[in-house]
Amino acid sequence: MIDTRKFYIDGQWVAPKGGEVFDVVNPATLQPVATISLASVEDVDAAVAAARRAFATYSLTPLSERLTLLERLQAIYRRRYREMAETITLELGAPATMSYEQQADVGTGHLQAFMDALREHRPVEVLPNGETVLREPIGVCGLITPWNWPVNQIALKVIPALATGCTCILKPSEFTPLSALLYAEMIDEAGFPAGVFNLVNGNGAVAGAALSKHPDVDMMSFTGSTRAGIAVSRDAAETVKRVSLELGGKSPNLIFEDADIEAAVRRGVQHCFNNSGQSCNAPTRMLVQRSVYERAIIAAEAAGREAQVGDPVQQGPHIGPVVNAQQWERIQTLIRAGIDEGARLLVGGPGKPEGFASGHFVRPTVFADVRPDMRVFRDEIFGPVLSITPFDTEEDAIALANDTPYGLAAYVQSGDEARIGRVIPRLRAGMIHVNGAGRRYGSPFGGYKQSGNGREGGKFGLEDFLEVKSIHRG
């Protein structure tokens, strides 16, 4: 049992002012693996005060100095890479291979992309009218990150804050705090000035709200549920601070009759199940042209049956558990809703996979004949659950794809470049993936509608943390 009750504030590991604690549980074994403290309002105040003091000098540091600090952090992260992967497996239940190849890799990949963007960044711009514009750090930033891709979201928030000259307070999810504590150790070793980066663990109702409402916090960057993002926005509105949100998704995967059907379907099933379905941009709504619908159903059922659930500490392509009991119960409720509302169950269903009586394991599940009025079509499930819906025409596909309050990602599978060119501009989503193409580090991550605002990653991620100041000379 790891005792990690201290917070990182003003360059020191300090004891909390409050006394509430929380056990971090391994979702595969249901055994507590660590104890953390939950921050009080007083703890948040101390972290914000440290960040405010540090901003006065850190905001004026030259770009070259900040780059040097980030380069040190990159070297330290690479040295402790395997430790980070193992930590994520312990706290999240992500399988060892997936943790090493994906979950931990984002820490070094995003950092490199931000450094590349920072080298190209020009803080001074002369406009065509001859006047000057400065881009300056926005100030003290509150950063709230989720449990599903813990280091991914830490890197997408902490790095651009530090790169642009901001100071910050990180509040990671209390369900996956160990990777954040390890990241804090790396930042400390890299030599960032005291107060530039601060970490407090806590829950949203106390620590998250205290950050969002705090008058000395200039910006909130939040990733999580749409419901919680609305709460952050309301709290932040009291002090009219900037709010950047990366929220939920219910991403459509459009498979047209001229695509490689079997390959597209298999790819879609595997992507939906990756990270046990706990990805906001997962292609969870597979929309298939009716002329090839039965072929797609056969392929989806085969791919779904091949999906394996396994022990996270073992190497391999299997999926692990979901993060906690609350999440497991929500997934079960929605799987049962799919059955009750008349969807055709191809693979999986409610309950735990055979051989996994303990742990928060979910049966990989595929539904066919899903209608737009069903909950499995409309609700973000955040588990390994795929719904498949037929469409007739290109117009029908676009209408179904956009029939959601979310707009994070969309996926298009077609062999017709003209069709792809027609469809992409009409999809109300922030990221479009064509024929299995993935994202590259440095590309903007974010969505439309209730999937949030702002963009994370590369130069677009830097801009979120910058203010614009215009200079008018006589």
From TrEMBL:
The active site is at 246. CDD domains: ALDH_CddD_SSP0762 (cd07138). It comes from the Bacteria. GO terms for molecular function: aldehyde dehydrogenase (NAD+) activity; metal ion binding. The keyword tRNA-binding does not apply. It catalyses: an aldehyde + NAD(+) + H2O = a carboxylate + NADH + 2 H(+). It is an enzyme of class 1 (oxidoreductase). InterPro entries: Ald_DH/histidinol_DH, Ald_DH_C, Ald_DH_CS_CYS, Ald_DH_CS_GLU, Ald_DH_N, Aldehyde_DH_dom. Its EC number is 1.2.1.3. Residues 13-471 form the Aldehyde dehydrogenase domain. Keywords: Metal-binding, NADP, Oxidation, Oxidoreductase, Potassium. Belongs to the aldehyde dehydrogenase family. PANTHER family: ALDEHYDE DEHYDROGENASE, ALDEHYDE DEHYDROGENASE-RELATED. This is aldehyde dehydrogenase (NAD(+)).
